[in-house]
Amino acid sequence: MRARKKGGADGTSNLQKAADACLRKQGIERQKNTSADAIPYSESGHRALIAIRCAKQSRPINSVLDEDYRREVEMLRPGTKVPHPTTVQRDLIHIYEHASIWVVNYFLVYFIWLFCMK
User: Fold this and answer.
1) pLDDT at 11
2) Which residues form the domain of 60?
């Protein structure tokens, strides 16, 4: 017996090439895996990214109303609903409240450690 040679990605490259050729003949382009780091879409994740972008880059909350931004979102993921500015504002307040609790706890632990070291 001799070991079989693999022909490509797990031995299926010829099958993948034939399937791609068939799809191209039909005018369909198969989506390639862009990377293992791709973030799957979720509405809550999208809202969090919008809120963080507004906070980090000092963008106005109503920037989600910008027609060019809405076109960009539609181009990247058709059918995606962009949240209303009041939703972005509530998300920012929620993030701020929870982050401020973390900051307070961080400094409490730091000051307790500081005083214990004396």
Assistant:
1) 61
2) 40-116
